[in-house]
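Team,

Forwarding the record for the chain on the shared tracking sheet. I've put the sequence and predicted structure together so nobody has to dig through attachments.
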Amino acid sequence: MELHELRGKVAIAGVGQAGLGRADGFTELEILAEAALQAVNDAGLSLRDIDGITTCSSLATMWALPVVEYLGLKPTFVDSTMLGGSSFVAHMLPAIHALVSGQCNAVLVCYGSTQKTATFDRSQLNKVRSHLDPQPYETPYEPLLPLSAYALAAARHMHEFGTTRKQLAEVAVAARKWAQLNPEATMRDPLSVEDVLAARMVSDPLTVRDCCMVSDGAGAYVLVRADRARDLRKKPVYVLGNATAVWHRQVSSMADLTVTAAAESGRRAFEMAGVSAAQVDMAMLYDAFTINPILFLEDLGFCKKGEGGAFVDNGGIAPGGRLPVNTNGGGLSCVHPGMYGVFLVVEAVRQLRGECGARQVPNAEVGLVHGNGGTLSSQSTAILGVESVL
């Protein structure tokens, strides 16, 4: 079966979140299980209906095993591929293949982390990560990874295209304005461009307000075949396209610091979906740092290379702007527990169902979700849509 034949064959039937911000007194497994139960209940299913699972963790190489055990599942499909924050977007296509082939009937995609409240020595954790994920051309110089890698990309974009610090700050301000409309968002205090520019510099040209927050949180969604989704509790959101691309691991191995593999994942996802960027009503873009949405808007075709700064300027992606981006507040203001990709999907689904209250995008029919992992290393794009666009 060719990829375009998988368009719309699978739908997201349920979504859930738990432990956003702080989850004091709870473990990662506990808040993951809560989010999973919310997603399963949202779909009108029970855990007995789940026979496929995809999950991963940055701290445990065999994370799927304790998750399966804790939830009491006996899945016929398991995927624990770890690509960083993009993983939970990248997990879609393998799950689609498993569902369409009949290997399983309902796939739970889930993630949880108590990175904010967990008690561990972060310096020791970084040493362990360096051992498990060696970056031989960078680690010996002890950069502030991943921060310094994104600062490098931001500096290059500014040098090559004239992108300004104000334009970077506009990304953070837009995220905060969306967060102020979202009662689940962690950071909802007012934030101005001047606040971002005056904040503590952490890796030039990025200040602390250009960086994602550190929080706890868990998210989950359930995938089923389209024919089954139509009979379940909530309005189905169909997966029209999904693609993943990886061009490097270390940022020093990027051929061009201003071009990411989103240029490939986006093209292939749009081809599978049979739509273009012009047809997208809202975009959920992995915003670990303010340079990310600027790069992804360009690479995904919302504007030309080098024009991302102008695209976000003057509230371009804020409420009332030209394109709604990260309507939950994103990783900059809503939630970012180590890996953020699953929350992109949850928000897109809620928008396409019309469940987002004050932040709802009117008449949303097509949504783009884009996950990023590592240091601009892994990119995964998904195009989601409602029944009217099938």
